[in-house]
Amino acid sequence: MKAVRLYGPGDLRVIELPVPEIGDGEILVRVKAALICGTDIRMWKNGSGVMPVTLGHEMAGTIERIGVSVRGYYVGQAVAVAPNFGCGTCDACVAGAGQHCPQLKALGIHLDGGFAEFLRVPAAAVAQGNVAPIEVGRGTSFPEAALAEPLSCVYNSFERAHLKPGDSVLVIGAGPIGLLHAKLYALAGAGLVMIHDLNEGRLEACATQDPRFVAIGRDGVAERVGELTRGRGADVIVTAASSAAAQALSFSLAALDARVIFFGGLAAGKEVVGLDTNVIHYKQITVTGTTRQSLPQYRRCLGLICGGTLPVAGVITASYPLEDAALAFEAAARGEGLKSGFLMSGDSEGQGSGGLLGGQS
Ligand SMILES: [Zn+2]
Ligand SMILES: [Zn+2]
To answer: What is the CA(293)–ligand 2 centre distance, in A?
Structure first.
């Protein structure tokens, strides 16, 4: 099978590998779609703790083979696979937050992931429910189902915002993560969804996805937010960008009792930021952050996508075959379009569901 593997910083190779063997408790998934994320780009540039490794942690496909002790799944079943799994027995895992397990493992980071024709899902991940059946029937595609991973990271952040109906929301950063935030807040009853970015092209691409979104460009940000909120500032502000400047900006645009969420972490060595803490005091704002997602959040987001509640088709703007990994990574690193990924047609094997989850570009 073909796989996109990272061997070192900047050293990404498309190679042939044997199709993985699976053990008793494991599942082999035929990957239909796997999306590229900022984490993949960072790993490509900086290298990673485990190498070589097949990248890709946002994926969906069909079950190809099932270990003899696995129950509840069938061959040919459409599934999305959550990448993170814990030990299963520590307090975090038992609380349903395996993403915080001290022994966390992630497909595509510590173990081979979804940028390949086949993905082996280890027994611990199968047992914890990382393989999530996709409900077929509302025209959802495999790439859209793969968006359950980034969407559930966004959902984790969203839950901390304690959105009230009619709240004004400002999303700083018009990448795919910013767009997913904007879509979720609009769905959940925000009265105003503002998106701010310095990159006019990206801002335009995001803002045109929903007539309710208000784009705010480089100039006069404070004035625009002031006009739109009648001088109050935003009730919820999300920094969907790895930027200290965005964090500082968020404080200055916050309304009384605002919730400010630092979604994007900062690069190592740049994480100490001067912030006006009197804003927290006098405006009584809540500042928080989130990382990754729980499995319940993953399943919930998969339901939002596959049930048609949250249309996400516009988030994916480019798809490539695995062979074009270098092109795909370079385009993603340049910030071209929004979300991109790999689409495996499976045509060479005469496979393909032919149904609504059949791949699309
Ligand atoms: Zn990701
Ligand atoms: Zn654990």
So the answer is: 14
Which residue would you say has higher pLDDT here, 47 or 140? 47
Q: How far is the CA of 93 from the centre of ligand 2 (A)?
A: 4
CATH superfamily of 2-147+312-349: Medium-chain alcohol dehydrogenases, catalytic domain (3.90.180.10)
Domain boundaries, the chain: 2-147+312-349, 154-289
d(CA 304, CA 297): 10
Looking at all shown ligands, the one closest to residue 100's CA atom is 2
Question: Is this structure's pTM higher than 0.85?
Answer: yes
Residue at 86: amino acid letter = G
Give, as residue ranges, everything with CB less than 5 Å from ion ligand 2.
Answer: 86-87, 90, 93, 101
Ligand nearest to the CA of 97: 2
pLDDT digits (tens, 9 = 90+) for 147-163: 999 999 999 999 999 99
Confidence label for 136 from pLDDT (cuts 50, 70 and 90): low
Which ligand lies nearest the alpha carbon of 83?
1
Give the closest ligand to the alpha carbon of residue 90: 2
* Residue 344 vs residues 94, 225, 297: alpha-carbon distances, Å: 36, 43, 26
Architecture of domain 154-289 in CATH? 3-Layer(aba) Sandwich (3.40)
pLDDT confidence tier of residue 347, bands split at 50, 70 and 90 = very low
